[in-house]
């Protein structure tokens, strides 16, 4: 099948709003590369008179963003206005708009859009440039056949995607269940039966307290205020024999946050300034795609909030409970007032304590005492959080169990992601095959003639 330029199959539209009755009451629409045509509150002007009408079957695109797939086809029953900066057009009767839309969103279509776009710093595709794009366009009856096949396959793909989404939901629940069963001792029940004589957690707590007392005596840390006793009503589940309930302050060396005055220390280079945006949900990996730097002050504020390897960071305003752990070799870094820094005692700087703080039980505690419109979780709340404490040796076993089970979850998630990619590629393959088949069908008809 030969390639045809789009100029024979499309025509530009430009119906201004001022020519329409009651245009001020019409909905304003926008275009994105994710959802296509959508209602938007974003208006470039309060005066809508120069906006353009779009209705069912029309195309609209931003000339400067069509290269990333930002084009929309107006669905049935939709009518509204778009910015005058948009290009609006429609297909003629010889080309089904659905097929053109699929083509322009495909890899081949995006390649041609990039080919015909103009500009140096910021490229744009004007309507005349769009008309130069070439596409294989079969007769209208074959187009309808292609569309029916595409819609049939789309139903199957949508069902497949729904199942994949369901699998992702179940996998997320499984990850949370693994963490919850870990901190309740359920993952290591068999291990405890095989190792009945391990040192109980009560002795670990006593040893940590003695170490903290020495640090206070050496004036390396301040003496903490007495913690409220843990009553039976606070305990949400029973612990295995040898475990103990304690509060975070019982096993912490330092709990603090930054001050509000760090803005004056911002710089283009220097020490890393970790903010809430660098923390993760359901994980303790730092997201460092965006990094801010500071020239730290040479005072107590600088030394107090300077981060160390193994420090656990917790967001305490807004989206409370996002986490991050300072890795080895991270370099000089600091935090602001929206982030809590939790530094465990040396004997407690282990993986188990990190897993506790991202478990469903920890999330429940993050959410329980939040205050104010923006939500807040005070440093005192962090220190008073409950922690189920296993014997020291069992902590290592729990961490290994969680690591192994999490790796299995990672493998399942990778398979789901691959299947999602394959689902997206399937539709493109169906369209390519359909056009190729239609080309072959036309050629055979010409031979028979």
From TrEMBL:
<dbReference type="GO" id="GO:0009307">
    <property type="term" value="P:DNA restriction-modification system"/>
</dbReference>
<keyword id="KW-0238">DNA-binding</keyword>
<dbReference type="InterPro" id="IPR044946">
    <property type="entry name" value="Restrct_endonuc_typeI_TRD_sf"/>
</dbReference>
<keyword id="KW-0680">Restriction system</keyword>
<protein>
    <recommendedName>
        <fullName>Type I restriction modification DNA specificity domain-containing protein</fullName>
    </recommendedName>
</protein>
<dbReference type="GO" id="GO:0003677">
    <property type="term" value="F:DNA binding"/>
</dbReference>
<comment type="similarity">
    <text>Belongs to the type-I restriction system S methylase family.</text>
</comment>
<dbReference type="InterPro" id="IPR051212">
    <property type="entry name" value="Type-I_RE_S_subunit"/>
</dbReference>
<dbReference type="Pfam" id="PF01420">
    <property type="entry name" value="Methylase_S"/>
</dbReference>
<feature type="domain" description="Type I restriction modification DNA specificity">
    <location>
        <begin position="240"/>
        <end position="417"/>
    </location>
</feature>
<dbReference type="InterPro" id="IPR000055">
    <property type="entry name" value="Restrct_endonuc_typeI_TRD"/>
</dbReference>
């Amino acid at each position: 099948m030969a390639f045809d330029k789009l100029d024979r199959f499309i025509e530009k539209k430009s119906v201004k709003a001022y020519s329409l009755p009651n245009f001020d009451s019409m909905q304003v629409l926008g275009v994105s590369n994710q959802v296509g045509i959508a209602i938007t509150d974003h208006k470039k002007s309060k005066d809508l008179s120069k906006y353009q009408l779009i209705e069912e079957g029309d195309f609209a695109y931003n000339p400067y963003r069509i290269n990333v797939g930002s084009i929309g086809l107006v669905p049935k029953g939709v009518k509204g206005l778009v910015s005058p900066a948009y290009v609006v057009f429609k297909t003629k009767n010889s080309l089904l708009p659905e097929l053109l839309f699929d083509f322009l969103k495909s890899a081949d279509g995006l390649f041609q859009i990039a080919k015909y776009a103009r500009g140096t710093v910021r490229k744009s595709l004007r309507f005349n440039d769009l008309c130069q794009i070439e596409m294989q366009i079969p007769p209208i009856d074959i187009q309808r056949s292609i569309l029916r096949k595409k819609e049939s396959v789309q139903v199957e793909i949508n069902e497949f995607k729904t199942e994949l989404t369901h699998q992702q939901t179940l996998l997320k629940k499984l990850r949370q269940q693994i963490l919850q069963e870990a901190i309740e001792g359920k993952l290591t029940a068999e291990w405890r039966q095989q190792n009945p004589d391990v040192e109980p957690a009560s002795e670990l707590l006593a040893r940590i307290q003695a170490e903290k007392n020495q640090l206070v005596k050496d004036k390396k840390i301040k003496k903490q205020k007495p913690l409220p006793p843990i009553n039976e009503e606070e305990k949400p589940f029973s612990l295995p024999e040898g475990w103990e309930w304690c509060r975070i302050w019982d096993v912490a060396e330092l709990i603090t946050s930054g001050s509000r005055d760090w803005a004056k220390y911002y710089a283009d280079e220097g020490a890393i300034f970790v903010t809430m945006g660098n923390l993760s949900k359901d994980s303790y990996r730092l997201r460092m795609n965006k990094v801010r730097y500071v020239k730290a002050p040479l005072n107590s504020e600088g030394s107090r909030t300077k981060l160390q390897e193994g420090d656990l960071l917790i967001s305490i305003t807004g989206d409370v409970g996002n986490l991050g752990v300072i890795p080895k070799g991270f370099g000089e870094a600091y935090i602001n007032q929206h982030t809590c820094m939790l530094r465990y005692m040396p004997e407690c700087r282990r993986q188990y304590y990190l897993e506790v703080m991202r478990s469903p039980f920890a999330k429940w505690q993050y959410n329980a005492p939040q205050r104010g419109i923006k939500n807040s979780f005070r440093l005192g709340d962090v220190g008073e959080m409950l922690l189920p404490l296993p014997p020291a040796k069992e902590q290592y076993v729990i961490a290994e169990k969680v690591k192994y089970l999490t790796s299995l979850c990672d493998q399942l998630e990778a398979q789901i992601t691959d299947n999602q990619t394959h689902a997206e590629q399937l539709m493109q393959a169906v369209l390519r095959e359909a056009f190729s088949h239609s080309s072959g069908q036309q050629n055979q008809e010409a031979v028979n003639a």
